Structure formats: structure tokens, C-alpha cells
RNA sequence: GCGCGGUUAGCUCAGUUGGUAGAGCGCGUCAUUGACGUUGACGAUGUCGGGGGUUCGAAUCCCUCACCGCGCACCA
């Protein structure tokens, strides 16, 4: 009998040691796994951002992916879980800018190379921290195949993809409205902005014979087009293209009448003026009619010289002054103070987004989205839960072209070159190498981080000619948060189909958010953030893992309660004591070849559970599988079978006793196996004490 | 505005193809020096959000309403 059983189970004395044994065994690498294995099982880890500590959401995905992997490894697959780390472009740059701010520094004015190197050092330091924490959670991923999104081979491949897409006409340079964050000095995708409903005064001004409404008087300096619906009877006497002189903010101007169907006659007076440079809708109208576009607000959010006396003023300051001036001129008709308006803000700093027209690189999404939809229609990708497929579909059917340029240094450089930039004879070349001839200037923009992470399943498996690519691509399951269903998942599918000619995974498992004990979203400002590492320190990693899995259906948010974690710590100890009892009572005994009838029945009962649970695992109902095993072990094996075994073990009937001893040892062995994917540490520790076991539990065959 | 969820025991949630309602925690009573007090046994609490329909039978399928949550959105 092992002396370790004298104390309650102590995770802190076990986990580090066990993880080292796993790592030293080499079994995280499928090439080293024992036995004949032909069928691969592959998961690509969503690369955590290398810019801070792991949070509860990371703990959830690591638990799920680890248990999928461990299950398949025990089933005899060439199980491979590929870890990575994401430089997380804008996200990390924002984190780093905050750090600079605290030190009284700013990225503006810094040498780009110097800034890049500083962020790189910061990220690499965090990457080490992140990897350590992933290990602490028991992740059986193959560290020898780890990749970072800024590894040279990754960067090179991502850049090649851009050039290829440009050659195929799927990437274009376009002058378009972008979401500009005046604080961060970069454009953002729609997904990097938040729409906030606000109460903003709605002004109605006299514009010649018309009344026009606006919430943004500060953009109105350049408005020289007045637009109405072509069928609006009230304005039928005004002809498209007709001009008129109107008195405006800084004096008289000549306005032109434009008829456009996008104007809603029901809204306000049915007439509006447009500011194409600072509004997406207005831009579209201007483009349709070939109208002039003038920039009114600069990149810092201040008014340009066109505003005359208001030049250099910040928007917030200028707005009321402009209204005042128009009011004095008798041009203010009315003010609705209670107007509900949706305002776009930067998702990181909450600064009001200023639409600006800018030359950027765009991906043509229509043909790519169609490819993705067709693949899903052919049944090549299953969504778990199924309803997430609807969300995916909605998104793919309504996708807009994707702006992939970011004006930040922290990222993969866009391989494009300009000659005579900004001139009439501007030349642009997409190429990794500098084009021949003089005067080429490199694009200083970097890719949106999703441009590289979208290619992650390909890059991780060594696309296009790495040694693993043929074996491990396409992968089996992509497990990630349901909040990424339209941010990341579609991009991986698109790149997978476009470059790899196959959908990058067969299934998408989408977990919900991990919320606090009352189901409220965790946030630093609310102070309800639960750190997974605090919990594992207190109750053990196995306990945290169980509490994240049991009853946690995919797609549904989870309330993480400390008492639940505590409950599974008790369970780990229960298992510990079950093992202790069984091992004490079977020490030195030989297994008998046949069980007495009563024992055979108990053995069959567990066999039935194995069948049931295996099916659940294969169909990703791990939340049910975990609960069933838990129930069996505690309330059937311990409460009933062990209790009724006591008289048998103490009794005179040697045949019954030997049969029961054989039974108990086999029930324990299989219970420990079944629990291993969920509670890898305590089960591996027990495995070493069960007689007749060889090698590590992590490679023991799954019971049948 | 559009979309997606949810509504089941005091709390947090399961309930896979329709077959007499479940778990954990909490609560109550009792037991136990036991493999384990990080224990065990027993127990109480539910018109499964409202209404309608399909069915021999509905928490489960269909329709509808209400409320809560989340996401998306270029109405000036």
C-alpha cells in the first residue's frame, strides 16, 4: 500500500509533478504514442493573446479541448492538439499603449522600429507566462509544434496569401469610408466598434427653401448637395442636378439638388444634405452620382480650414458654437433634445468613431462567403450547437468587404509597394519582394489580426508543404467561444477553402461565456472577475475543470460558482478514498478468471455506462458524460457497491471474496480511465498505485 | 429595426429520438470513530413563463403572447 494514501488528496503536491511526467514522456506528440495508430485526431488551439494572464474563458476552452484530445488519445487515435500564441495586433498595441501612458510616454513620435521591438519584448515575456498557465491547467498539447503568429514562416505565408489574393482579384485597394478612431489613429473593422444608443440633440436648419435635419452640425460646412427621394411629391418641382443659392454657416454657397432612392421620405422633412467624407451612407450616395467629397475633420478629430473661424476646434467644442451661429443667423428651425441616436465608438477606448475616407486594402467577401456557405450546405461543417449555424449563415449572407489595413506597427506588414504615392500616376504593387526600379516605398500598414489568425488551421498544420499538412489537415474540431462565430470562424472556413481546398474542420464546437456566480458578465470595472488560477490554487485543477464541464451545454453561458468548484474538490478526494479502500482490500490478490453472477452483473452495469458515455463523448455531449461518470463513481460505486462489498470482503466465502476483489479492482480501473479526460491529475496519480498498470494513464486504452 | 438564446426546486443549471419531473449547492431529521466529517441514509420544496394546437401521451413538436439576456444594424 502506497504511503501517500494516509492523507487527503492534495492537488498542490501532485499536479506539477504529474505534468512534468507527461511532458517528459513525449506523448503530447502523436509521433511518440505507443501502439499502431493510423487515424489522426486534430485540434488547433485558438491561440491565446500573449498580452496578459489567462481568464476563466481560457480555462474553459483549455479544459474542453484537452478532454477531447485525451479521450481520442486513449481511444487509439494519433491525437494532436496544436498550441499557439497570438500577437493580437490592435489588442496588444492598446494594452501596450496604456502601459506607455502610465510611464508618461506615447507611441506617437516614437520610432516605429523601436516601438515594435518594445512591444515584441513585452509580448514574448507574456507568451512565456501564458504557456506556463496553460500547462498548469493540464493541457496535453504538443509544445514541440507550437507556433506564434509572428514566427517568420507564419509571416511569410500570410504575406504570400495576400499577394495570391491580390493576383486572384480578391484583394483590392479602395478609397472607402472606414471607421477611424481619432485616439488610436487607425481604422477599425465594424467588429472593432460598438454601437451605443445615446440621446443626442437633433437640429433642424434652414437650407435655402428646405428644412434639413442633423445630429452633426460640425460636419455641415461642406454640404453642397441637397438630397430627396425621386418620388417625393412635395419636391416634384425640384429637378435632379438643379442648382440654387443658399445662405449657410460661413456665407452663401451654391447647392445642387440630388434625387436618390435611399432617402426615406417619412423621416424628418424627407430632405437632407450630405457629407460624403464623414458618413458611410452619404459616401454611397455621392459615389452613385459622382459627387465631390471634401474632408472636414482631420485625423485627430479637429476641424480643417474649410471651417474657417472654427478651424482646429475639437468636434465636441465646435458643435454648440456652430449651432449658436446658425441660430443667430436665423437658420435654426428647431431642436429636438430627446432624439435617440446610435453612435459608433471604439471598442477599446470608447472614443467616438469618425468615419473618414481613406485608401485601404479590402478583401472582396462576396465570392468567398458564397464558397463558405456552399461548403456548409454540402454538410462539410457541423455546428455544435446546431443553431449557431443560423448565426453563421446570417453573417455570411450579409457580409461587407473586409478592411484589412491597420495603421499600427504591431502586426504583420502588408507586402505592398507604392511609387509616386498620392500622385496622379501612383503605382501600387503587391509583392513580398521590393519591385525593380527606383522610388518604391513600402506600405507601412499592418494586417488586421484576423487576417493571420483566419489562416491558423492551415498555418498550424504546415500549409502548404509542411510534414504534418497531409496528415492533420483538415482538422477535426474547432472549439472556441460563440462570440467568435462571425469574427473568426467564417474567416478560417474561407481561408481553409480558398487555400487548402477543404473546410479546415469538420465540426465547430462553440462554448458560451463564463460569467460570475450570478450569471453576470465578468468585468474589471464591476470587480467580479474570477481568476482561474486562484481557483486551481485553492481547489485543484481537476476540480475547476469538472466545474467548467458538468452541465455546461455548448452555446450557453455558464455561471462559475466557487461552491461548485469546492464540490468537485470533494469529489477528487472521494475518488482518492475509493481507491484507497479498493487497494487496501485487494492488496496482493490475484484476479480470478470468472466472476460470480452478482459481480458479473455489476461489471455489466459499468460496461453499459461505458457504452453510453463513449457515445456522449464522440458526439461532444461532454457535459452529460461528466455528470454520468460522476454519478456512477460517487453514488453507485462508493455509496452502494463499496458498502455492500464490506460484508463480502470480511466474510468466510473465499470464492465470493476473490470474485469481489477482482470486480472492485476492475471497476476502479475503468472508473479512473473514464474520469481521466476530465480530471487528468488525480486519475494519473492514482493510476500509478493500481497494480498491473503499465505506462501512463494518458495513453491507457479507453474501456470498451 | 433584424437576428439568436433563455424562462424547469430557495440559488446555479441538466433533461440526447415525445413515455408518470432531475443534479449540485442550500435547507430539515437521523446516523456514524468508518476508505472518506471533504461522510452516509432519509426528507421537504415544482400548475417545467401564459394561452392555444398536434398526439393515446408534451418540459420536449407547432402557433401565439409576455418578460429577461445577448448579438447585429449606414435612418440623416
List the helices and strands and how they pair.
Layout lengths: L10 H15 L14 E5 L11 H19 L3 E5 L1 E2 L3 H14 L9 H25 L10 E2 L3 H16 L3 E11 L4 E3 L4 E7 L2 E6 L2 E5 L10 E4 L14 E6 L2 E9 L11 E3 L6 H10 L25 H14 L3 E5 L3 E7 L7 E10 L1 H13 L4 E3 L3 H10 L4 E2 L1 E2 L9 E4 L7 E4 L10 E2 L3 E2 L1 H5 L2 H5 L8 H4 L2 E7 L7 H12 L4 E7 L2 E2 L16 H8 L1 H9 L8 E2 L2 H25 L10 H22 L3 H29 L3 H22 L4 H8 L17
Helix pairs in contact: 1-20, 2-15, 8-13, 14-15, 15-16, 16-18, 16-19, 17-18, 17-19, 18-19, 19-20
The chain binds one RNA strand of 76 nucleotides through strand 9, strand 13, helix 6, strand 15 and helix 9.
Account of the protein in words:
This protein is an alpha/beta fold. The protein is 40% helix and 18% strand. It is built from 20 helices and 27 strands. The strands form 10 sheets. The protein has a 4-stranded antiparallel beta sheet with strand order 6-5-16-18. It has a 4-stranded mixed beta sheet with strand order 11-12-10-13, with no helix packed on it. Strand 20 (416-419) and strand 21 form a beta hairpin. Helix 2 (56-74) crosses helix 15 (541-549), helix 15 (541-549) packs across helix 16 (562-586) and helix 16 (562-586) packs parallel to helix 18 (622-650). The radius of gyration is 32 Å and the shape is elongated. It starts with 10 loop residues before the first helix and ends in a 17-residue tail after the last helix. It binds one RNA strand of 76 nucleotides through strand 9, strand 13, helix 6, strand 15 and helix 9.
